[in-house]
Design goal:
The chain is α/β, with parallel strands linked by helices. The chain has six helices and 13 strands. The strands form two sheets. Strands 1, 2, 3, 10, 11, 12 and 13 form a seven-stranded mixed sheet that branches. It has a six-stranded mixed sheet with strand order 4-5-6-7-9-8, covered by helices on one side. The longest helix has 16 residues. The radius of gyration is 18 Å and the shape is globular. The structure holds fe (ii) ion. The site of fe (ii) ion has 7 residues, from loops. Fe (ii) ion (FE2) binds next to loops.
Length: about 290
């Protein structure tokens, strides 16, 4: 059996200097000071990290928004957190929109965490493929800088074309797709959606995958996407790993464990949600059989 842990959306923040608050960062900082700093708490992330480390896992996936305003200090903190979590061999990261909040930050994720986002071929490019046992992890980057009040993501034609190739290449393995933005968003999240999600879903429908995991919405979600020949692909969203309490339509902190077993054509995958309750205790949620 292979156990995959999935965490997302830490939003590690640091205090910006005045000169760093130009453009979108200024609005983001106001939002942080008014609301978000009470939601995303380092002590909550610490408790969840300790809980993950106490589990018998084979690999950890982190699906983006490790940082908050793309400040260099934040990437440094995120790097330290990743080091605590595990080695680049055992932890896989994909970036989110907050990891490339501004154009100037586009290279920061690769600079600070490149070894956690590299495929087995050793190249710095998305998507990438990592094989661990019977599991093939395919990591995409949907994080792009956007204008104020927007948090959309985009994969782009080149990435989607290579994604189709990697799904073929990894056929026969349990293919896990890692992406920050959900593959389908309701209308009310129009300014936070993946803009080329329809094309992305078409590729999944044609090529298939065994599981898709994402973050971004800070809430638990499970939808079934169309796969080839009448099959269905579970797409699972996870809450923020640092959320001190439910906030609006967002859930309190949690993560997921996936127990993966079997072989091609007869995979078994069970999801075990781990959730932090109002007393700060992390415990098992209701288990779900996904395949
Ligand atoms: Fe996000």
């Amino acid at each position: 059996m292979f156990t995959l842990a999935h965490l997302s959306d830490l939003h590690l923040a640091s205090q910006p200097r005045l000169a760093q608050l130009a453009s979108k960062r200024g609005l983001g900082f106001i939002n942080w000071q008014r609301k978000r700093k009470y939601v995303h708490r380092p002590e909550v992330l610490d408790a969840l990290t300790r809980d993950v480390k106490a589990q018998a896992f084979d690999h950890i996936a982190v699906t983006g928004d490790l940082v908050n305003l793309s400040l260099p200090d934040e990437y440094q903190r995120a790097r330290q957190w990743l080091g605590m979590l595990g080695s680049p061999h055992d932890v896989t990261v994909v970036p989110g929109n907050h990891d490339v909040y501004l154009r100037v930050a586009a290279q920061y994720p690769a600079t600070f965490w490149g070894d956690y986002m590299r495929g087995d071929d050793g190249l710095d490019r998305f998507p990438f493929l990592r094989r661990r046992g019977n599991v093939a992890l395919i990591g995409l980057s949907s994080g792009v800088p956007t204008g104020p009040f927007m948090a959309t993501g985009r994969l782009g034609q080149r990435q989607i074309a290579r994604f189709a190739e990697l799904l073929d290449q990894a056929k026969g393995s349990f293919r896990v797709v890692l992406v920050h933005h959900p593959p389908l968003s309701p209308g009310r999240r129009h300014l936070r959606r993946l803009t080329d999600a329809a094309t992305f879903r078409q590729v999944l429908a044609a090529k298939g995958a065994e599981l898709l995991i994402h973050g971004h919405d800070h809430r638990r979600a499970l939808i079934w996407l169309e796969g080839p020949h009448g099959t269905r692909i579970p797409a699972v969203g996870v809450p923020s790993a640092s959320a001190s309490a439910p906030h609006g339509d967002e859930d309190g902190a949690g993560y997921n464990l996936f127990n993966i077993d079997g072989a091609a054509g007869a995979w078994r995958c069970e999801m075990i949600p781990r959730q932090r309750n109002a007393d700060g205790i992390v415990g098992d949620g209701e288990r779900r059989t996904l395949s």
